[in-house]
Write a structure and sequence with these properties.
heterodimer; A: 293 residues; MetI-like fold; two-stranded antiparallel ribbon; 15 helices; 4 strands; B: MetI-like fold; 2 domains
C-alpha cells in the first residue's frame, strides 16, 4: 500500500518501541545476571547504569573467567548449594535423549500417516491430537505412582521417556505435514520398481525431509528444555532441570536474584540460538504443522 | 506386475508396524493414566495405614461441595478468557503493525520469537523480580504513573495478584499470536485488497470484511493451541504466587497438584485432574467441530 514518508517513519518507530517493550524483560533479566546485589536491590531500580560483575556466573558454574575453574564448594550462601553446572548438564541430557526418542517414533508414524490410506486414519490423527490436550497434572499423578513401582522416580530414563512421549503429538503432526510436502508420486514409482516401503522411507523420504526433521527436533528439544511440571513431580534430588532448580535460589535469607538470573541467562541463550536457526519453520511448528509459512 | 510384487506391496503397505511404537507409548501415557485416575478417584490414601482405601463416591461428592474447587475453576476460566482475548487482540494489532517491509522489521520479527523459548517457570521468576514491591521495575513504573499505590505489593494483594500473573503470561505468549498472525497475513492474496482500494474502502472496512474472514482459520488454530495451554496453566502460578494470596490465583491444575503432593490426598487430586481433563477435551472437541479445524 502507498504510505507517505511520515506514516512510514511513525510506523517504523512504533514497531521498534513495541518490540522493545517485549524485549525489555529479557534485557533486564540478563543484566541482573551481571549485577552485584547492591545494583539489584536499589530504589529506584537501576536500568542501565551499573558496574558489571561476573561473580554470579562464577558462583553458579564454578568458572572464574580467566582463572579456570573456581572453588565450587565455597558457594553456599543461605545454606543452599548454588553450583548449577551439573543441573545444566541434566537439562541437556534429558532434552537430547527425549528428542531422539520422540523423533524416531514420530518419523515412523508420520510417514505411514502421510503415505498409507487405511480405515480410521482421520480418527487416528485426531486421537494423536487429543493426547496433546491432556493436562500434564492428569498424567503426572498416575505417572508418579507407576514410576514409584518401577523405581523410575528420579532417574534419567524416567524423565527422558516422559518428555519424549509428551512431544509425540507435536512431532507426529508436524512431521506428517513435512512428509505431505514431498510428492507421493516419488514413493509410488519406487514401489512399482520393487522397492520396499522401508527402503523408500530410509533412502528417499528421510533425506528429502531432513530440514523438516531438524526443525521438529529443535522444537522437541526446546519443549523438553522448558518443561516444568513433570520434572517437578517425577524427580527428587539426583536430577533437576534448569526451570525446576531455579527455586533453589529462594533461600531463608532472601532470593539470590543475581545467581538465578545467571543460570536463567545461561539456559536461555542456547535456546535463542537454535530458535533463530529454525525461524523458517517456526510458525508451522508452533501450530503443529497446521499452518505453513 | 507379478503376483509376488503385488503381494509385497500389499504386505509392506500395512500402517500398523509403523504406528506400533507410537500407539504403545501413547497408550502408556494417555489411556493408562486416564483409567488409573478413574480408579484412584474412588480411593483415598489413608496415612495411618499407609495405603489406599476404597471410598466409593466420596471424592466426587466432596468435589461437588468443594468451594475451593469451584473457585479454582473460576480462576482458571477467568485466566483463560482474559489471556486469550488480550493475546489475540494485541497479537493481531502488533502483527498488522509489523506486516510491512520497513527498516529492521525482519529483525524485530525474529526478536519476538525469543520469548517463546524461555521456560515459563523462569519467565515467572523474571516477573516476580520485575513486580517486587521494593525493587521491581513494574512496581516503579506503576508508582510513577500513579496507577499503583506506593508500597502495595502486586502479587501479594488479592485484587491485583491475577493481573500480575497474567502480565507474565501475556508478555510471553502474545508474540506467539503475532508470529502466527503475521504468517497468515503474509499469505493473503493481494487482489481483493486492490479491488477494495478501487472501490474506496477504508482500511478498517478492509480489515473487517477481507482480513478477518480470510484469517479465520489461522485465528482458530491459534486459539485452539493457545487455549489448551491456557486451561492447564500451572508454571506461572506455582512460581509466582503458589495460588495466593488466599485463593486468588488458585488454578485447577495447581489445586490438583497440591492436593496430591502437598496434602497427600491422592484420590481427591486424581478426581480434580480428571475433571479438568474432561472439561478440556469437551471444550477442545466442540471447538474443533464448530471452527471446522482439521489436521
Amino acid at each position: 500500500m502507498h504510505q507517505s514518508a511520515s506514516t512510514r517513519t511513525l510506523r517504523t518507530i512504533a514497531g521498534w518501541v513495541v518490540v522493545g517493550l517485549f524485549f525489555f524483560p529479557i534485557y533486564f533479566w540478563t543484566s541482573v545476571a551481571f549485577r552485584d546485589a547492591k545494583d539489584i536491590f536499589n530504589w529506584p531500580p537501576i536500568f542501565f547504569d551499573f558496574s558489571p560483575t561476573f561473580k554470579n556466573f562464577e558462583q553458579v558454574f564454578g568458572i572464574s573467567l580467566g582463572f579456570g575453574f573456581g572453588n565450587q564448594t565455597a558457594v553456599t550462601p543461605g545454606g543452599g548449594n548454588f553450583y548449577m553446572a551439573p543441573r545444566l548438564l541434566d537439562t541437556i541430557i534429558v532434552a537430547s535423549f527425549s528428542t531422539i526418542l520422540a523423533i524416531v517414533v514420530a518419523t515412523l508414524a508420520a510417514y505411514s500417516l502421510s503415505r498409507m490410506t487405511f480405515r480410521g486414519r482421520h480418527d487416528f490423527v485426531n486421537w494423536v491430537l487429543s493426547t496433546r490436550m491432556m493436562p500434564p497434572v492428569a498424567v503426572a499423578i498416575p505417572m508418579f505412582f507407576i514410576f514409584k513401582q518401577f523405581n523410575l522416580l528420579d532417574t534419567y530414563t524416567g524423565v527422558i521417556v516422559v518428555h519424549g512421549i509428551m512431544n509425540l503429538p507435536l512431532a507426529v503432526l508436524l512431521l506428517k505435514s513435512f512428509f505431505d510436502d514431498i510428492p507421493a508420486e516419488i514413493d509410488e514409482s519406487a514401489l512399482l520398481d520393487g522397492a520396499s516401503r522401508w527402503t523408500i522411507f530410509r533412502r528417499i523420504v528421510l533425506p528429502m525431509a531432513k530440514g523438516g526433521i531438524a526443525a521438529t527436533a529443535v522444537l522437541c528439544f526446546i519443549f523438553s528444555w522448558t518443561e516444568f511440571l513433570f520434572v517437578l513431580t517425577l524427580t527428587q534430588t539426583s536430577i533437576k532441570t534448569v526451570p525446576v532448580v531455579s527455586s533453589t535460589f529462594v533461600t531463608s535469607i532472601g532470593t539470590a536474584w543475581g545467581n538465578m538470573a545467571a543460570l536463567g541467562a545461561a539456559a536461555i541463550v542456547p535456546a535463542f540460538i537454535v530458535i533463530l536457526l529454525v525461524q523458517r519453520h517456526l510458525v508451522r511448528g508452533l501450530t503443529m504443522g497446521s499452518l505453513k509459512q | 506386475m507379478s503376483v509376488a510384487q503385488v503381494k509385497r506391496i500389499a504386505i509392506s503397505d500395512s500402517p500398523w508396524p509403523w504406528l506400533m511404537p507410537l500407539i504403545a507409548l501413547l497408550v502408556v501415557f494417555t489411556i493408562y493414566p486416564f483409567f488409573y485416575n478413574v480408579w484412584l478417584s474412588f480411593h483415598e490414601f489413608v496415612p495411618r495405614k499407609r495405603s489406599l482405601a476404597f471410598v466409593g463416591f466420596d471424592n466426587w461428592i466432596q468435589l461437588w461441595n468443594d468451594a475451593r474447587f469451584w473457585g479454582a475453576l473460576g480462576v482458571t476460566f477467568a485466566y483463560f478468557i482474559i489471556a486469550l482475548i488480550i493475546e489475540i487482540v494485541l497479537g493481531m494489532a502488533i502483527a498488522l503493525l509489523l506486516d510491512a517491509e520497513l527498516p529492521g522489521f525482519g529483525a524485530l520479527r525474529a526478536v519476538l520469537s525469543l520469548t517463546l523459548v524461555i521456560p515459563p517457570a523462569i519467565a515467572g521468576m523474571m516477573f516476580l523480580l520485575l513486580q517486587d514491591p521494593q525493587f521491581g521495575v513494574v512496581t516503579y513504573v506503576l508508582n510513577s504513573l500513579g496507577i499503583l499505590d506506593k508500597g502495595m505489593p502486586i502479587l501479594a494483594t488479592s485484587s491485583t495478584a491475577l493481573a500480575g500473573v497474567l502480565l507474565a503470561e501475556i508478555w510471553q505468549w502474545t508474540p506467539f499470536m503475532v508470529l502466527i498472525f503475521l504468517a497468515g497475513l503474509r499469505s493473503l492474496p493481494a487482489e481483493p485488497y486492490e479491488a477494495a482500494m478501487i472501490d474506496g474502502a477504508s482500511s478498517f472496512q478492509m480489515f473487517r470484511r477481507l482480513t478477518l474472514p480470510m484469517m479465520s482459520r489461522v485465528i482458530a488454530v491459534a486459539v485452539l493451541i493457545r487455549g489448551i495451554d491456557l486451561f492447564r496453566v500451572f508454571d506461572y502460578v506455582f512460581v509466582m504466587t503458589s495460588g495466593g494470596p488466599g485463593t486468588a490465583t488458585y488454578t485447577v491444575s495447581l489445586y490438583a497438584w497440591q492436593q496430591t503432593f502437598s496434602f497427600l490426598k491422592w484420590g481427591y487430586g486424581a478426581t480434580i485432574s480428571l475433571t479438568s481433563l474432561v472439561i478440556i477435551l469437551v471444550l477442545a472437541n466442540v471447538f474443533l467441530r464448530v471452527a471446522k479445524v482439521r489436521w
